[in-house]
Structures are given as structure tokens and as C-alpha cells.
From TrEMBL:
Residues 4-217 form the NAD-dependent epimerase/dehydratase domain. This is Nucleoside-diphosphate-sugar epimerase. Pfam families: Epimerase (PF01370). It comes from the Bacteria. InterPro entries: Epimerase_deHydtase (IPR001509), Lipid_A_modif_metabolic_enz (IPR050177), NAD(P)-bd_dom_sf (IPR036291). The lineage of its organism: Bacteria, Pseudomonadati, Pseudomonadota, Alphaproteobacteria, Hyphomicrobiales.
Length: 345
């Protein structure tokens, strides 16, 4: 069994990943800005910052870690400043890469993002599509990719570009949608909801990360679900399965996007450029490369994984509302001006 180093192992994806590795018999070192809820004799969990080179050296040198699974990232949510986000995501990745090289760890797996693009696409996006981020989170992920790829002589890097990651426990902005459904309110679409926006099931992503680890080479992959349903179909599936009184309704696309941009600019809404695209346009990765090279296959479609996440929310709603000191995806996002829309729904 291997010794694995995980960054961001206390977050939504990281907690699932660490649990999976421990269940498989591996030993794990986790570094995160927040404490882990997990306790295990083969888990060493450190509250710390990946920008702290001395700390990384103390954790990595002479330890025989086989791989680094780099999931740590700050999101453009809440009160995080652009400077802090860039420093954590970019300077943190730069410091981590240097420490990995010094410790002679042979491989890094990096979770990147579809935020590398600011617009939707009518066709599935291939790995050679030139990135064009329009906001700081996407730009920070692209910079992270470039830093890791510059260390090809030191270690192998597999970059996995992910759409929105869904599983039980995924909250953040999704908790706003789930609250509307749980309370039987109107669930709003921007436009007619015919856009198809791909998700990835967290456990399918974890399987891909483990396959990439076994492959042990420099690679770049887009990942995501198959048979992507429209956003309207996804919402209606969850509403029906939940036996909710909620119903799907539409807002005019042009005026709504203008209002969303204005509200975000005034810091009245948590919905930024990434959410504009998810709500109103289509985006899907071409997953033929990862399927061919790693033999990976997704197990859940969008509507099924969204229902998994909703059922977790519904079963744990009271506890969720009281959460503190957890990562952004493991607690509800602040509604801001969206609360007005809720009152009208």
C-alpha cells in the first residue's frame, strides 16, 4: 500500500478522496487550511498552507510519498479577495511544485477546471482548445497548469479538467437551488433551460485520479458525464423524485444576465461569470481521450448525481445550516440578492 499526499483533503472532494484512499488500504498525508473531520490511524492531517515551503518540506522530504493529489484551491466566493485567491492558488501551486521536485516525488495529479473558458460551446471541448478564462479563478487554474507543466523534468503531471463536481455533501451555490426545491418554490431558469451543462460525479473523478496515478505519465484530460441532459430536465428530475411542490419557471435570458452581472459587480450576489455560463449556456468536455488512454468510464449522469446531492441536503438540512469552519463547497453559499427572488417565488 502506498503513502499519498493530498492537498485540500478537508474539502468536499478531498474528504471523499481521502476516505477512498484509506478504504483501499493506503496511508494519507493531508494538508488543508481547515481541519479534517476524518480520524484514522493511517491519516496524518495537518492544518497548514501550501505556500509554507518549510512546512511542505517537513511533510514531504524523506517520506516516500508516491504521488501528490493536488485538490487545494480557494474559490471566488464570499469575502476572499482576488489577491488572496491568486496567491493561494498560483503561489501555492508554485511552492508545492518546488517542494515536490526537491523531495523527488515522481508524480502529481492536478484537478483543474472548465473555468478555463468563459463562454459556452456548441460542440464538446477537446484538450487542444485554447483556454480563454474571463475571471480570476479560471486564470489561477490555468497558471497552476502551466507551473506544473514547467516541471516535466522533475516529475510527471496529469491534469484533469473538471466541470462542476457533484456528490452527496456538495453544497455551496447548489444549496440555494436545493433550498428552493425543498420549500416548494419556483426554480428559475435563465432562458428556456435547454442548455446542456456537464457535471462530473465525484466518485467518477476519484476513479480517474487513481487510474492516472497508475498510468504515471504526463497527461491532460477533460472529464465529465455522458448523456448530458438539459438543465430543465435535471431540475424537473430532482423535483419529481423529491415529490416537491416546486416548479420550473423561466426568466428572459438577456435582461437576467445583465442584472446578474450588475448584482455580482456590486457584491450583492454570489453568482459570478462561471455561474452565468452554467445557468444560461452549454458546455461539455469531449471525454474520448481519457476513456481511450485510461479506460475510464462515468457511472452517473447529471440528473442522477444532482438527485444524490439533493437527498443529502434534504436529510441533513438543519445540521448544514449550522456548519462553520468548513470549506466553501461543504456549507451553503450566502444568497445575497437572490433572497429577494426567493421571496417572490
Amino acid at each position: 500500500m502506498a503513502l499519498v499526499f493530498v492537498t485540500g483533503g478537508s474539502g468536499f472532494l478531498g474528504t471523499l478522496l481521502v476516505n477512498d484512499l484509506l478504504a483501499a488500504g493506503h496511508s494519507v498525508t493531508n494538508i488543508d487550511l481547515v481541519p479534517s473531520e476524518l480520524k484514522h490511524p493511517r491519516l496524518r492531517s495537518v492544518v497548514g498552507d501550501i505556500r509554507n515551503r518549510a512546512l511542505l518540506d517537513s511533510l514531504l522530504r524523506d517520506t516516500q510519498h508516491e504521488v501528490v493529489l493536488h485538490c487545494a484551491a480557494l474559490l471566488a466566493h464570499g469575502r476572499i479577495s482576488p489577491q488572496e485567491l491568486w496567491s493561494a492558488n498560483v503561489d501555492g501551486t508554485r511552492t508545492l511544485a518546488a517542494a515536490v521536485a526537491a523531495a523527488k516525488i515522481p508524480q502529481v495529479i492536478f484537478t483543474s477546471s472548465n473555468c478555463l473558458w468563459s463562454t459556452g460551446f456548441s460542440l464538446p471541448v477537446k484538450e487542444d482548445e485554447p483556454p480563454a478564462p474571463a475571471e480570476i479563478y479560471g486564470s489561477s487554474k490555468l497558471a497552476g497548469e502551466e507551473i506544473l507543466q514547467s516541471h516535466r523534468a522533475d516529475f510527471a503531471t496529469t491534469i484533469i479538467r473538471c466541470p462542476t463536481i457533484i456528490d452527496e455533501g456538495r453544497l455551496g451555490l447548489l444549496a440555494i437551488l436545493f433550498e428552493f426545491i425543498a420549500e416548494g418554490r419556483r426554480v428559475w431558469l435563465v432562458g428556456d433551460g435547454s442548455n446542456r451543462y456537464q457535471f462530473i460525479y465525484a466518485r467518477d473523478l476519484i476513479d480517474a485520479m487513481k487510474l492516472a496515478w497508475r498510468a504515471g505519465r504526463n497527461s491532460l484530460f477533460g472529464i465529465g458525464s455522458d448523456n448530458v441532459a438539459s438543465l430543465r430536465q435535471c431540475y424537473e428530475h430532482v423535483i419529481t423524485a423529491a415529490q416537491s411542490r416546486a416548479r420550473v419557471a423561466s426568466l428572459p435570458k438577456g435582461p437576467t444576465l445583465l442584472a446578474m452581472r450588475a448584482a455580482y459587480g456590486l457584491r450583492l450576489s454570489p453568482l459570478g461569470p462561471y455561474q452565468y455560463r452554467m445557468i444560461a449556456s452549454s458546455f461539455e468536455f469531449d471525454t474520448s481521450r481519457i476513456k481511450a488512454e485510461l479506460g475510464w468510464r462515468p457511472t452517473l449522469a447529471n440528473h442522477d448525481m444532482l438527485l444524490v446531492a439533493y437527498r443529502y441536503y434534504a436529510a441533513n438540512r438543519v445540521e448544514i445550516q449550522n456548519r462553520q469552519d468548513v470549506s466553501a463547497h461543504r456549507k451553503p453559499a450566502d444568497m445575497g440578492a437572490i433572497r429577494v427572488l426567493k421571496w417572490l417565488s
